[in-house]
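User: Second chain of the day. Same drill as before.
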Amino acid sequence: MPEGHTIHRLARDFREGFGGRKVRAASPQGKFSAGAALVDGQVLTGAEAHGKHLFLGFDGAGRVHVHLGLYGKFTFGTGPAPAPVGQVRLRLVAEGDGGGEASGVHADLRGPTRCELITEDEQRAVEERLGPDPLRADADPERAWARVSRSRTTVAALLMDQKVVAGVGNVYRAEVLFRHGIDPYRPGRGLSRTEWDGIWADLVELMHEGVRNNRIDTVRPQHTPEAMGRAPRVDDHGGEVYVYRRAGMACHVCGEPVRTAGLAARNLFWCPACQPA
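Assistant: Same format as last time:
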């Protein structure tokens, strides 16, 4: 499932490519035909993300709320939009600045968990159910700490709970706990305030870097392939990481095998030596 940096990157791409432009909307698949008809011909006035939720604002029509889920994906293109391929839930097409079709931009949405037209109040209700998002300027880490510090639930599960922290997924969860030497099975109330502040600050920095680079890199300079003289990581996820999807491989820091286990229906990765119980 895409993590929060991907959704914020999408919001930025929509602001840059569609912001302030009149948009043509269609649902070639047919599942969003009524919503697309209301959006068609409207101007995109805003695009923002909160956690893993994307909101595209259209004056006079409301907001298109998208949650990609496990299989959803946006693809962008320029020039004339080609014939739809596959199950396109939503297609958005904007004219170019010069009015020419070749300079236009288009985006196709396939396979989302949610694609719906909602009101401003409904968007607010969605956001009120979410925890603070490390990528948002209005995020309040105190809200997350209030829940974490009272909880017997493992810190690994709490970081994946979108009601506690919005936007963190399996990769950032595993990596930030490794970077701070924290056993993923420690209960939330077992964290010190200093440890929590360090986790939050690290998430802010790592996730902003993810938006900039459009990939997740979490290794420190001394552990990059160039610094260690090792081969770069090859994985569909991309990016250099410490423990995520590295089960059985040697830890970059101590050399011990990285471990994995199931937790809350997701695979957990950690180094038992660097993250002692």
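Residues 25 and 246 are 42 Å apart (CA to CA).

User: Great, on to the next one.
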